[in-house]
Amino acid sequence: QVQLVESGGGSVQSGGSLTLSCVASGRFFSIHSMDWYRLGSGNQRELVASARSGMDGIYADSVKGRFTISRDNAKNTVYLFMNSLKPEDTAVYYCNAQIDLRDYWGKGTLVTVSS
């Protein structure tokens, strides 16, 4: 069974940095994309960044220039490097992956940014 496990969340002050990781485990043939979403206080899920095979990263306007998504295909892992964090980045961050034509979600990791 395919599982996605996120890690790296935590609390940080405004202007700080955090790195999130998401590892895909189980038996599968290929990962088409690995994305990061977040659910903030507005209770609306937002696509933060997407790493699709053979393409440059795609970012929400709100994080461009501050966040970087990176995939390590050998480790079935996607990272989200978050710099210059702002209080409005506070949210639960979820990993999503398209694996063997199916959609999978992690359980989420909480990021809290204080002013």
Helical residues, percent: under 10%
Report the sheet-strand fraction.
Answer: over 45%
Could you list the spans in which at least 5 consecutive residues all have pLDDT below 50?
none
Mean pLDDT score, rounded?
A: 95
Shape descriptor reads globular
- Helices and strands, in order, run as EEEEEEEEEEE
Number of strands: 11
- Taking the alpha carbons of the first and last residues, their distance comes to 41 Å
Treating each run of at least 4 consecutive H or I residues as one helix, how many helices?
Answer: 0
Radius of gyration: 13 Å
Overall SS class: mainly beta
Main pleated-sheet profile: 7 strands, mixed
List the keywords:
seven-stranded mixed β-sheet; 115 residues; globular; mainly beta; 58% strand
Give a brief outline of the structure.
This protein has strands at residues 3-7, 10-13, 18-25, 31-39, 45-52, 58-59, 67-72, 77-82, 91-99, 102-105, 109-114. It is mainly beta and 115 residues long.
